[in-house]
Design a protein that fits this description.
Length: 54
Protein backbone atom coordinates (compact mmCIF):
# COMPACT_ATOMS: atom_id res chain seq x y z
CA UNK A 1 0.00 0.00 0.00
CA UNK A 2 1.35 3.42 -0.93
CA UNK A 3 0.90 6.36 1.45
CA UNK A 4 1.55 10.01 0.71
CA UNK A 5 2.74 12.22 3.56
CA UNK A 6 2.64 16.01 3.45
CA UNK A 7 5.47 18.18 4.75
CA UNK A 8 8.03 15.36 4.68
CA UNK A 9 10.98 17.42 3.48
CA UNK A 10 14.23 16.08 4.99
CA UNK A 11 16.16 12.95 5.85
CA UNK A 12 15.31 13.57 9.50
CA UNK A 13 11.63 13.22 8.58
CA UNK A 14 12.40 9.88 6.92
CA UNK A 15 14.00 8.62 10.16
CA UNK A 16 10.96 9.63 12.21
CA UNK A 17 8.56 8.00 9.76
CA UNK A 18 10.56 4.74 9.75
CA UNK A 19 10.59 4.76 13.54
CA UNK A 20 6.84 5.34 13.81
CA UNK A 21 6.07 2.65 11.24
CA UNK A 22 8.15 0.19 13.26
CA UNK A 23 6.41 1.21 16.48
CA UNK A 24 3.06 0.50 14.82
CA UNK A 25 4.27 -2.90 13.59
CA UNK A 26 4.24 -1.94 9.91
CA UNK A 27 6.92 -3.14 7.51
CA UNK A 28 8.03 -0.57 4.95
CA UNK A 29 9.30 -1.37 1.48
CA UNK A 30 10.26 2.18 0.55
CA UNK A 31 10.47 5.47 2.43
CA UNK A 32 11.07 8.48 0.20
CA UNK A 33 10.35 12.15 0.78
CA UNK A 34 6.57 12.48 0.78
CA UNK A 35 5.91 8.83 -0.03
CA UNK A 36 5.93 5.56 1.90
CA UNK A 37 5.19 2.08 0.66
CA UNK A 38 4.22 -0.52 3.27
CA UNK A 39 3.82 -4.27 2.77
CA UNK A 40 0.49 -4.51 4.57
CA UNK A 41 -2.93 -3.28 3.54
CA UNK A 42 -3.99 -0.94 6.33
CA UNK A 43 -7.30 -1.32 8.09
CA UNK A 44 -9.15 1.93 8.83
CA UNK A 45 -8.04 1.58 12.47
CA UNK A 46 -4.33 1.17 11.54
CA UNK A 47 -4.58 4.03 9.07
CA UNK A 48 -5.97 6.30 11.79
CA UNK A 49 -3.19 5.23 14.18
CA UNK A 50 -0.61 6.03 11.51
CA UNK A 51 -2.16 9.46 10.84
CA UNK A 52 -2.20 10.26 14.57
CA UNK A 53 1.41 9.12 15.05
CA UNK A 54 2.70 11.28 12.23
Amino acid sequence: MKLFIKYMVSDCCKKVVKSELGRLGLHHLKVELGEVEVMEELTPEKLQQQKTAL
